[in-house]
Recover the amino acids of this structure.
C-alpha cells in the first residue's frame, strides 16, 4: 500500500493562529471549523506514509512590517 502513495504529498497551506484566533488581525470567519478536518487529513496521510508539507506565508501586511523594521534596524537607504 505504501508504494501507492510514494509520489504523493499533502500540502497544508497557511494554518496560522492569526486566521482563527478571536483577536487575530487576519481572522477568518469560520476558520476554526476546518481545523478538525485538517488534523484528520494529516493523521491519515502520516498513517499511509504520505509526505506532509506545511507551508506558511506571511500575509503581505506583515511582510511590509518586517521589512520596515529591518530597514529601520539596519538603516538601509
Amino acid at each position: 500500500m505504501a508504494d501507492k502513495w510514494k509520489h504523493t504529498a499533502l500540502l497544508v497551506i497557511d494554518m496560522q493562529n492569526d486566521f482563527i484566533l478571536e483577536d487575530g488581525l487576519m481572522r477568518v470567519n469560520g476558520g476554526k471549523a476546518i481545523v478538525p478536518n485538517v488534523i484528520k487529513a494529516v493523521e491519515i496521510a502520516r498513517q499511509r506514509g504520505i509526505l506532509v508539507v506545511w507551508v506558511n506565508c506571511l500575509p503581505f501586511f506583515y511582510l511590509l512590517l518586517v521589512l520596515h523594521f529591518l530597514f529601520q534596524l539596519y538603516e538601509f537607504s
About this structure: The chain has a mean pLDDT of 81. Residues 12 and 54 are 5 Å apart (CA to CA). The helical segments are 35-47, 60-74. The chain is about 35% helix and 15% strand.
